[in-house]
# Entry
Amino acid sequence: MADKIVWIAPQQSADRPLIGGKALNLIRLAGSGVAVPPGFILTTQLFEDLVGQDRRNSIQDILKKLPAFPSPPEIEQTSGQIKAALSTLRLDQEFTSIVIAGYQALAERTGQPIPTVAVRSSGTGEDDLFSSGAGIYDSFLGVRGVQALIERIWACWLSVVNTRALLYWVKRGSPETTRMAVIVQEMVPAEASGVMMTINPVNRDRSKMVIEAVWGLGEPLVRGEVNPDRFLIDKLEAFVISANIAHKPTRLVSERSGENSLITETTPPALQDAACLTQEALEQLISLGRRLETAFEVPLDIEFATCKGQVYILQARAETSWAKGEPRVHGLSNQPIEQIVKTMLEMGKNKR
Amino acid sequence: MNKKSFPSPVEIKAPPGAEGWEDLYNWYHLFGEERAEQDEKRFWFQDRLHHPKALYPYDEIFCEGWWLALGAFNTRIFALPPALGIDQRVLNGYLYISPVPVSNPEDIPRRAEIFQKRAGYYYENWDQIYSQWKVKTTKRFEELKAISFPPLPDIEDESIVFDRIGSSSGYRLIERFQRMILIMYETFQWHFELLNIGYAAYLTFFTFCREAFPQISDQSISRMVGGLKIDLYRPDDELKRLAKKAEQLGIGDQLIQAKAPADLFANLAKTAPGEQWLSDWQTTSDPWFRVATDPAHPGGYHIYSTWLEDQAIPLAYVRNYIQQLRNGESIDRPTEKILAERDRITAEYRALLALEDMAGFDELVALARKVFVYIEEHMLYIDHWMWSTFWMKSRELAQTMVKMGYLDDPEDMFYLRRYEVMEALYDLVAGWAVGSRPRGAEYWRPIISKRRDIYRALDAWEAPLVLGIPPAEVTEPFTVMLWGITTDRLQEWLQDAGADKSTLKGIAGSPGVVEGAARLIYSVEELETVQDGEVLVCSATSPAWSPVFSRISAAISDVGGIMSHAAIICREYGLPAVVGTGNAMAAIRTGQRVLVDGNRGVVSILEI
# Structure
């Protein structure tokens, strides 16, 4: 069983082929001592056993028929064929009992009788530190109850062969299907959520951090659908350099009832123009950002949520703007006098 | 460039009751028709940092001293490539200054070549030059201290004869006065010998940091440089030491209960521990209590006494430190912590640079730290020691003129320009020499009386902060670093009319955000009224104010840049500061709740 389900917890040992990159990052985060919402990972092994060798062979046959440069309709057709071949497996008794046991254990850990969870993919080729591969698989938020959970896990896992994914892999010259694990993680009822980059992505200045955040859940922010509050942070001395507070008329929240509980609602008027992060939350974030960057050794792109005075880290990956290059060379002279003369001359040029 | 401009200097009329004010100041220091065309095209800002009050005629020497010295070193000696000196005019009793740019761009490369050679020589030999500088300055300080102006005798001492002196005390009175004036001019030259190029090096470090780390705060940059244990903080450190020593000797209660310094000292002398402390106090007092008590930058006025003359001030601070010790508070400046933080920040910024830039960065930080010591310490040696001693000696001369019946009141002398004081001395000595009587008292009485009235009217006048046409770019290092006048600030001031009165913009002097009750302070004597946790609001601060920083929660000043005293000391104490707001003293009342955002340089008045 240990190779079929793995909990997100410190000191969990699991490798990338078993749980995928995103899940591995979550375990690493939990191991760094930051607050990560509880959850479990259904491993690639679980799904491999479920599919079995025979079905795998027939999937390979379907994929082989795909031409070297397939057209979108050809890809879509292939995707449909594979999904059809796998569709009944979600009813497998061992699979459902593992999911149910995991969900019940999560209910105990969170103290929620029916926890609201997010279901996300964790591919073994995805979330390399340097290629985020973001957004090619389906993920589901606000999932509640065993029935919905099983449906969503299955849909999530099947997205390994959805059109977008196949197209992505074909373009990258890696036609083989990736192995995929699925993360089931509690969704904390976030007061605010956001993204923190431990670098200024605009100019790649690593002495700064940028935090963007909105009320409620972070999906509309990540999808770029809303204007977030934006904070520029002095990373080295840990203070806010500038704060641009956005007008935030709506927010996405998860209700603790119903099966699919995400709703977009009007933000209470008093909050619409208020900063969605408190000074305390910002301080926690800055310190977490510094700590995680030191642990991961590269600038990071960190998703977070705040709930009852606690900052939860939902995800951390290498910040993509940084991967593009080394720090800029300013041509600073080893002779200070030369630099001083240069500066004085620049001052005299009436430039700003 | 913004087309708007500030009022023209020629449009400014004399305040009511101050007509004829021009007689109080040297003719060459005034705006005048002869150069009106040129002066109207320039921009002028009122130097509130050094001269928040109207100038006394005698005290004009301070401005003139730096007018000549700063200018010569920028323009003629080191040939700063983009900037000449800082010009001065007195208008309605207030000092207005204007940086002079290099007008012909073709001069700049030639100046750069000269600057590189000459300033480079000074940077390379900085430590040696500075240690020799201290020796020569201390020598002049001792010479100045030795000058005295006793009343002229009825019959000369016989030593004039038997030592074959060959000249009279009257002649030597004139000679000493002239010598004293020249010493001040000379040491003010030395003041700028190292300061201009010191600022140039420091500004270069700032500029590089801003380029490499856009939006880096000014205080982050200066924290990479400051934090050293330097002599400027020594007076305050000595008071802390004396407070601890008083507790060790068991005389703390005596100090706390004492009222007048004279009574206290008499009582202390009665016991052995008291005697021991008192002798330490007296040894320490000179030179360390030669601290001017100006409300703004030290040195510019004769009216402010020193700790040395008014020992109630340092004693009050010592009492305060004893109380803090008894409350279990630490009174030491956290130098170690600041240095550790400085090294951490520097190492982290360095690590973010490209490999190719690291060596240059190391050199530049090292040079900035080296010059920073001078930038801080020169204030103690020149502005405090030299200038407060000069004012003490000048007051002594004024007393002598009163004793000899030449003036009615010692203050009268300061309503005379220093050239007029020289004239008066020739008159006085002539009268004394021949045994007749000088024309003096009767001649000066109506002049001084009229000038007192004029001065009062000038001092009550609210001088506009900026006049004339703002330049496209402010390029002079002092203007930027010391006065905090940047191109952006000028634009903000231009647009300020009718703006939101509850928000003041200044310069982020020291990081942090604090809310508290405001306390407006106009002079050092009022510092005792400051309650724990209040926000200090002032024109500017000087080292005499240092002890108050252990009680306040933040500071706001009207004048000053990131290198002003208030900003530097707030960074030392870890307090937020917004400096150079321009009008905090006018906009804020004592007791109002204010929010001081030292990260962004903004003050919000929370209750109107």
Residues 44-64 of chain A form the longest helix (21 residues). Chain A touches chain B at residues 200, 203, 205-208, 232, 234, 236-237, 239-242, 279, 326-341, 343-348, 350-352 (CB under 8 Å). The longest strand of chain A covers residues 310-318. The two ends of chain A are 65 Å apart (CA to CA).
